[in-house]
User: Which sequence fits this backbone?
């Protein structure tokens, strides 16, 4: 079997594996929470948190109206920063719980 065929089979199985998807989601959440601190500073730690990722929609819980307004303004920048760090589109949009 040529290497390209093996690589295609392996990447197909890895992409469909539920454990792989959960690990990827966890990494995206970790990166999103780190970026929240970078974008808005340390005082944001208890006011906003990325909590869930499904179908490329990142859910962020927010306890402050001011933080919500700021994040809505910087939404496209924030999504771009996450996707840039993973070098692929892992987040398409944000959903806010407030």
Assistant:
């Amino acid at each position: 079997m040529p290497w390209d065929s093996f690589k295609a089979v392996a990447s197909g199985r890895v992409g469909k594996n539920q454990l792989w998807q959960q690990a990827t989601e966890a990494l995206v959440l970790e990166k999103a929470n780190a970026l929240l601190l970078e974008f808005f500073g340390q005082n944001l730690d208890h006011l906003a948190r990325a909590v869930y990722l499904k179908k490329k929609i990142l859910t962020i819980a927010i306890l402050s109206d001011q933080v919500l307004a700021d994040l809505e303004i910087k939404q496209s920048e924030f999504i771009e920063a996450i996707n840039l760090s993973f070098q692929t589109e892992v987040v398409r949009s944000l959903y806010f719980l407030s």
